[in-house]
Amino acid sequence: MSAEDEDFLKLSRISEDQAPYQILLNNYPLKEFLGLTPSEMHWIIYDPYGEDSEFQIKRVDNDVLDKIPFFLLAEYLLLILYRDRKIKLTKKGCLPLKYCEELVKTKIINESIYEHETLKIIREDYLPSIRAVRIVLMLGGLVTCKNNTLTISQYGFQLLEEKNRQELFVVIFETFTDEFLWKYLDGYTSQLIGQLGFVFSISMLKHFGTDSHEANFYAHKYKEAFPLLENHLRDSRFFPKNDQFISCYNLRVFQKFFNWFGLVNKDEHLTSNIEKCKYFKTDILDKLFETPELLKQFL
After folding, report:
1. Residues 73 and 20 in one domain
2. Considering the domain boundaries, does residue 46 fall inside one?
3. 266 and 229: one domain?
4. Which helix (H) or strand (E) holds 150?
5. I need a labelling partner for 222 at 20 to 30 A (CA). Which of 67, 82, 120, 190 fits?
């Protein structure tokens, strides 16, 4: 037997001896994960929609889907395509002005830019929700784009014809969280903050969201679970990494993700400062999702 073979056998025996301890460690609840285990965090990060995942999207009635702004906006754009058969995009690959104006006038998602008095022309460049909807429909295979022209795919057409809104929502939600890059909607250098481990954020909101808390409350707990993500940011004397992290999380998770999917309400009367706004969960969250349970002794 060669020396290399002997070394391999030694390593194999060590691995076998350590296996029970490794299993124990992987299933031990940790404070920084609010009582979740490394094994649970592994699927939260790498496979939130896998067979072993404790995160599930429940089947809901239309009255719940009708309260989810991003879904309604995406559905509306699909219906426009159903009506007009095709949409010729601009040279930059954006929706033409008339379609942006039609979507804005629905007021399904109210963004501050919509009400800007100096904005004479409503363009997709200024409308993050509309840009996100177009890209999500494309990534989710609900529409196709050939020769810079949007049309409904056979799959998208089938879901509309069958009025299968449940499956339509699942495709839109999974695509938004798992394929569409949230970084497209802001100028932060990190690609991962907020989107990585989004199930962890939903679990926190489900547990703590009965009472109103600032977004910073959740951001600090998220940062404790994912401290290395701060390294993805560029340091600045005027905007330290920690402040960037908290601001990025607030923008991506609360102002966009949670808000667009109708998962939070704001205590508007408490403050006009967006950084100090307090949020509480809506009843939609509990109706929509099954999430891993946080352990009280670690909170």
Report:
1. no
2. yes
3. yes
4. strand 149-152
5. 67
Displacement of CA 88 from its chain's centroid (Å)? 28
The answer to the question of residue 145 being in a domain is yes
- Summary mean pLDDT of the chain: 88
Q: Which domain holds residue 9?
A: 3-57
From first to last of its 299 residues, what are the pLDDT tens digits of the chain? 555 555 444 444 445 555 454 554 667 788 999 999 999 999 999 999 999 899 999 999 999 999 999 999 999 999 999 999 999 999 999 999 999 999 999 999 987 655 544 455 678 988 999 999 999 999 999 999 999 999 999 999 999 999 999 999 999 999 999 999 999 999 899 999 999 999 999 999 999 999 999 999 999 999 999 999 999 898 888 889 999 999 999 999 999 999 999 999 988 665 556 667 899 999 999 999 999 988 766 66
Reported pTM: 0.88
Same domain, 35 and 94: no
In this structure, the answer to whether residues 202 and 169 fall within a common structural domain is no
How far is 60 from 14, CA to CA, in rounded Å? 50
Q: Can you spell out the DSSP letters for 192-246?
A: STTTTTHHHHHHHHHHHTTS-EEHHHHHHHHHHHSGGGGGGSPP-SSS-HHHHHH
The count of structural domains within the chain is 3
- Does a structural domain hold residue 186? no
Same domain assignment for residues 106 and 156: yes
- Residues listed for the chain: 299
| Residues 30 and 73 grouped into a single domain | no
Query: 64 and 123 in contact (C-beta within 8 Å)?
Result: no
Candidates 66, 73, 81, 74; CA nearest to 157 is 81
